């Protein structure tokens, strides 16, 4: 049985901020399109706060939500109580649908736990410093090797320019 790659997908400001008051502190239409392209068809793992901020399951992909509260009653959502359970469930969903990757999409607490378990990081570096209450851990270059890098100027629906970088575990 081939292993399923675990990929973190996140947009991070220069000061590590990824969120503010349960939302993203920017508008990045270009990045949302890339996020959809990366995650479509693959199981996505998120915490309950991230799920609540999105407001509904992401279409076109199985949603696995980690929560200590009540289960989410929706046919496209699997509710679990830990990251380990989420990964196990998402990997099973990936195998069922012929996918070789699961995507971990937030928020801050989930990223902090998942970093040590992940194989790849798809990071959108947002070229600004913003105030926020959710942060992403620093990326240790002795553990992560930056590969493909794409500079993305701010489009008309983007608050800031970004740099998209794929990191693989060394």
Automatic annotation (TrEMBL):
What highest taxon heads this organism's lineage?
Bacteria
Task: Answer whether the UniProt record assigns the keyword Isomerase to this protein.
Answer: no
Q: Name one GO biological process term.
A: dihydrofolate metabolic process
Domain named DHFR: which ranges? 5-169
- Cited InterPro entries: DHFR, DHFR-like_dom_sf, DHFR_CS, DHFR_dom
**GO CC annotation terms, alphabetical:** cytosol
Pathway assignment reads: Cofactor biosynthesis; tetrahydrofolate biosynthesis; 5,6,7,8-tetrahydrofolate from 7,8-dihydrofolate: step 1/1
Q: What class of enzyme is it?
A: oxidoreductase
Q: Which reaction does it catalyse?
A: (6S)-5,6,7,8-tetrahydrofolate + NADP(+) = 7,8-dihydrofolate + NADPH + H(+)
The entry lists its GO molecular-function terms as: dihydrofolate reductase activity; NADP+ binding
- Pfam families in the cross-refs: DHFR_1
Entry annotated with the keyword Oxidoreductase: yes
EC numbers for this chain: 1.5.1.3
* PANTHER family named among the record's database cross-references: DIHYDROFOLATE REDUCTASE
Name of the protein this chain belongs to: Dihydrofolate reductase
